[in-house]
Amino acid sequence: MIPPRHVGLVLGVLAAVLLAVMAAAGCQAAARVAARTDATAAVERAASAFVVRAGAVDPAGAAGYAAALTPWTTGPLRQALQGAMEDRSVRTLRRETVTRVETAVVTALGRDEAVVAVAAVQARRWLDARAGMQHERVRQRIVCRLERIAGRWLVAELRVLAEEPVE
User: Fold this and answer.
1) pTM of the model as a whole
2) Statement: residue 50 has pLDDT above 80
3) Is-contact 147 113, C-beta < 8 A?
4) Which domain holds residue 157?
5) What CATH code is carried by the domain that includes residue 142?
């Protein structure tokens, strides 16, 4: 049994130990939040950069399209790009596309996998043999699944969920 005059001292020591444990846990939590924030930003940047790259490359030239995008991909998307065939019927089509990402939001984040929802606007111009120069602006809703390979976030899957005209 603790003598009554030492109860205050014991409670003080216990409170100090509890405070030290709480401070350590708080520091660890802050470090985890900071690391998660850094990872979220890195994933959003990787997905945004890929959407901009994919929008800027002319898909009429499959070899150039695959060469431009393969370094930023992995898994099934990389395999699909490596197996892409050139469509000779569109070789003469001159097309210019500029893509601007409006938002990129991480919807799932694990240690080595992430999912990002991207909203982007594409401005497209092309020359039609009959109608002349044509142009359109569309907003795309895209979902990218990324995997971390050797410290880099690479796109493993890309799904265009919607495309709508922008006035």
Assistant:
1) 0.72
2) yes
3) yes
4) 4-57+88-165
5) 3.10.450
